[in-house]
What we know:
Layout: E1 2-6, E2 10-16, H1 21-24, E3 41-47, H2 49-60, E4 63-70, H3 75-83, E5 87-93, E6 100-106, E7 112-117, E8 135-140, H4 145-158, E9 162-164, H5 175-184, E10 187-191, H6 192-202, H7 206-210, E11 217-220, E12 226-230, E13 233-237, H8 251-264, H9 269-283, H10 297-300
Helix pairs in contact: 2-8, 5-6, 8-9
Amino acid sequence: MSVLICGSLAFDTITNFPGRFAEQILPEQLHILNVSFLVPTLRREYGGCAGNIAYSLSQLGGQAVVMAAVGTDGLEYVKRIQSWGANTDYVTVIPDSHTAQAIIITDADNNQITAFHPGAMQSAHLSPIPARRDISVAIVAPDGREAMLQHASQLVDAGIPFVFDPGQGLPMFDGMELRQFVAQATWVAVNDYEARMLVDRTGISLESMSRSHLRGVIVTLGAAGCDMWLDGMQTRIPAVQASTLIDPTGCGDAFRASLLFGIEGGWPLIDCVKLGNRVGAIKIASRGGQNHALEKISRIL
């Protein structure tokens, strides 16, 4: 069976600031913020949530079906995705548009500041959820605003369970819209910052969410591991120590690919999360979101 990945395809420009953001930003001067970071390294990577998730899912042996939009500069990226064995039938090329672009600065503590140009991603809603019987699970990852709203609704109509992963797209939605996403989703996956924002905007606690129809609420905590909420109960799953800390870009996407792989395979949610922690630790030892190599599942667990 296949996993439908609704999200962005983007090119990432990744830089590293050897200092710490906290030492350069004065809290009492935030109202007149004007900072510049000297970044001695720079590289271009393939990225976007859909691309990164599809990469790790394919590495794990899953069958990814990617639904996204690219500009005329994204055809090479589409071929790259096809080379993994992933399906790109639902990747739309938008004329007279650039593929989405992210400019990322990472500091010495692995904090990140990102600027994002959506480009073709703003037209991702033009492609509806396909009528395919081989799709067992899906994810609504960060994408164009209308695409996220429409695809969530279409997945419900199609009877396809899905993970709601708002990511950096969360600020685009108000409390009513986020409550609707939660009501439609089967699982919710957020990091700790997004979790606080989701709770604040919806007025619903993580405990309450997990007592609803949801089959799980997953909160990633970086080096602290992950919290799994089931039926009102919180379980902390410890992190896996990475061999080295190189680049956190795409770690969340690698985690979500693992989550989807396990869900599609019928695993208990705790095992899906454990795999996510393991794969995230492997990814952080590589630069970019699509350069890590994964071992066979039997060796990863």
